[in-house]
Structure formats: structure tokens, C-alpha cells
Known about the structure:
The chain has about 325 residues and is mainly α. It contains 15 helices and no strands. Helix 1 packs across helix 14, helix 4 runs parallel beside helix 7 and helix 7 runs antiparallel to helix 8. The longest helix is centred in the C-terminal third of the chain and has 35 residues. The chain is globular and about 105 Å long. The mean pLDDT is about 90.
Amino acid sequence: xxxYLTSSGQWLDETIEAMRLVMPDLLGRERELAHxxxxxxxxxxxxxxxxxxxxxxxxxxxxYVRAHKDRDEADRVNxxxxxxxxxxxxxxxxxxxxxxxxxxxxxxxxxLIDFGFHFAGRRRWKRAPRPIQLFGSKGSDIAWxxxxxxxxxxxxxxxxxxxxxLPQYRIEHFRGLPVQRxxxxxxxxxxxxxxxxxxxxxxxxxxxxxYFPLWAGLRLAPQGQRRGILSDIRADLESxxxxxxxxxRLPEIAFVPACFGMPAATDTTASTCGTCPLADKCARMGAxxxxxxxxxxxxxxxxxxxxxxxxxxxQRRRTARHRARKKAASAASAVTA
Length: 337
């Protein structure tokens, strides 16, 4: 899954679109989620991540309907309107919030969605779960966390092993970015916890994908096995059983984190921003996005403006009714007097 940004123009377009489609408070949450979400999504824009979540939800829904309802219906069911990303709607807000909840848990979207449908199927729900219902219902606030923990016990380590095509994490692109360091820490713990042969543990992340330096990986292995591990890896490379991922040049914009330029993320005094080497660029790009939003749509957030105007209009109507009742009461009092 190659999902990195290829140009500043692409980032700007996706950011403007996100600002057009959802409320600023939702975009503001992206800052706190940027270091919690699954590593495959940490260089994706929030809009791109939500579109990916939507596509995986559609796939999961079809499989659920095919297994629990009707095979013919599964070919027709979509679950989400084809116009979901064309304009703001309650359906899009629900989808966005569901994706953010998955990010809060730090889970791969496919595993979270598969479990959500699995959970609903075991309880014979009358209807297929909506995106936000993938996290259970009001009556399953105890059962859902317990069951997903069991569900992930074997599947999550496999998801780590399947991570590929994430060039921002490769050793030739390592810049000490917070998300890169966090990924290496996670890999270190994963390698240590594995019970497979050391050659197998290290050949994938250290050689094939180059996410972790081989010398650092070897230091995790028992000292007496290191020569044998190196010999096995060389043999696998020579025989073609082990193939290195291609080297890839990346534009600078490919390294920006998911929260880059989001409205709240432009506050460089925040604790999550203070240690980020991209904080100044983030603030500048956030300002550019806001200016471009004004140019294209006449407002930083038309959604927020519309909501504020409706609230003000409601307050004006309530004030007018209150004054009318007060005036009527005064007139009635004058007549009786």
C-alpha cells in the first residue's frame, strides 16, 4: 500500500477538502491521534485515511452480508453512499469519527473492521453494523474490549510482519522523526517477543524491508547465534529467497505526519508539537491552507459558520419570543389596572 504524498499541491488539496467536509474540532483531534494510530497510516492525510477506512468497511460489509444474510444482496450492498465524500453529512462525520476511534486504539483498520463484523455476527445482530457500531453497542461495553483482546492476540503480530511498502521508515530515509523512532521502538519489542527463528525475525524488517538496521537487530539476538544468522541471511539473498525492497526517492512532503497543518496542529506551543522538527513548517503550511480555504470557499470553515449562524438565529428567535411575551404581559397588566 503506497500511500505517501507526492507533492505539496496534493497535500494542500486534501487538506482543503478535509476543512470543507468536516468540523474544525474533528480535524483538531488529528494532532493527538498522530502518535497513536497504526504505523501504516502515520504519513497519510486524515482524508486519505478516512477514504481507506471507508473502502475497507465496504469490503467487510459485503463479506458480512454474504455470510449472515444473503449472497445476492452482498453483491448489491454498499453501506455508504457513493456521494459520501462529495459534501458534508452526518454519514461522513460518523465515518470520520469511527476512523478516529480506530486510530485511538492504534489498530490496523482491516483488523478492527473484521472484528467489528465478527462481533456483530456472533451476537446475531438484526442489521449489519454501521461504521461507529463496529466498536460494539451500549450493552457490550465490557464484552467488546475483552473479545477484541483475544481476537488480536495472534492476528496483530501477523499484521506487523505484513507491514510493507512504507518507504518513510526505511533506514536510508531515517531522519529521527518522532514517528520513525516510535516505529523502531515498536519493531524492537516485536522482534524480542517473537518465538520464531532469529533469522526469520530479522530477515524481514532488517533486510527485505530495511526498517531496522541489521547490526541493531543482531544485537537483540543471542551472541552465540549471530554468525549463523548472518550466514543464513547471505545464503537466502544469494538464492533469491530473500529480496530487498527497491530503493525509492521521496519528496520532502512524503515525510510530514498525519497531523501536519491541521488547524489545532499549528499551535507550536502544544506539547506534541514542541518536540517536532517540522513544527515551524507545519504552522506555515497551516496558514497557507487557511488562506487558500478563504480564497476557494470564502471561509475557514463554512460548516462552523453555518452552525454558528443557526445558533445565533435560534437565539434571536428565542429573544424575540421572550420580548413579545413580556410585552404582551405588560399590555395585559396595563388593561387590568
